[in-house]
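2 proteins. here.
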Amino acid sequence: MRELQIETGEIYHICNRSIGGEKIFSKSDFAGHFLETLFLVNTTDSRLLNWRREKLHSGILEFKGDRLADIYALVLMPDHFHILAKQLIDGGVAILCQRLCNSFARYYNLTSERKGRLFLGPYRAVHISNDAQAAHIFTYMHGNPLDLIVPEWREGGVKNWEKAEKFLKSYPWSSLGAYTDAKTHNFIKDIINKDFASDYFDKSDDYLLQIKDWSERQNEFGDDLPLLE
């Protein structure tokens, strides 16, 4: 997957997992630090990440560079993350993922008194080649937290959608809340470019309805819908 040529102007579903399924985002401090890092590294500004973090906390951060990628959706699961993004400059996705994963791994290892690699690799990516794939990947990613309470949601196995919807709206590590009134971490709202979704959904209620519909119709797409799990 790492050999995929990432083209500028194209959209990709990006994923990375921890080694051995370690629950790297199970604590809010780690998940929040990861999101803060993602916000800070998505720029051509070459100044040190630690300097940008310090300025961010002092409330006077100014970015002088351009964004490496437009990020349309993201979800943190206990042992992995999903990002839907469009590369804006040549090499932008690789730079973004390298900075993000390396910086977070150093922080996680230091804080957890751990040594060695944290992620399975630099990242995995699937090219989103058409509008149908884009809309369905966007919906699939926001449904991912259901794995924590009803893993069979992918095969239409949700028996209580009211409970499922309540869980999704309360999950803070998803960009669903950037598009709806659902709960979300503050950094996610700063990270996400919401222009993308307006091409596929008419109103905020559509996002949750589409997750239910995706679950019920997933088998229709078969191999035509590339997924990173």
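next one coming up
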Amino acid sequence: MTSDSISAVTSRTEFRDGVRACLRQALETGAREIFMIDPTFADWPLNEPAVVDTIASWAGTGRSLTLMAHRFEEFPRRHMRFVEWRRNWSHVVRCRADEDLEEQQIPTLLFVPGLVCLRMVDNVEYRGTLSGTATDLATGKETVDALLQRSSEAFPITALGL
């Protein structure tokens, strides 16, 4: 993906391929931050060994991966590999939620600042864009900033109980 290109996403497969491509691009360019936002992360390929390996290769000193959801209730069941990897990399991964918003108000977005933005505008029909244009990157940053301001820490590494 070049900095001025836009690709249409028209299927679940293309969305998942877009996630993989964005993560590889973040790894290859040494991006410092990755933001992944989705109401539930149900359709994300975060349980695939290759995806977890890409994130693991990317993670390191000074890197930050932020996930934001409506809630993370189903996340451990759907993405066991990612959850297991995260246990050792909690200093890199932040999880945030905003349960005050309705689930449909939380967009599906993968944003790597200055590099790429994968945005779904219709999660039922799988319609969206994969873009590196300045306009889409600016819109992605605004969306992330607004959501992070409203959200709070969520999905702790371990569940504490008495």
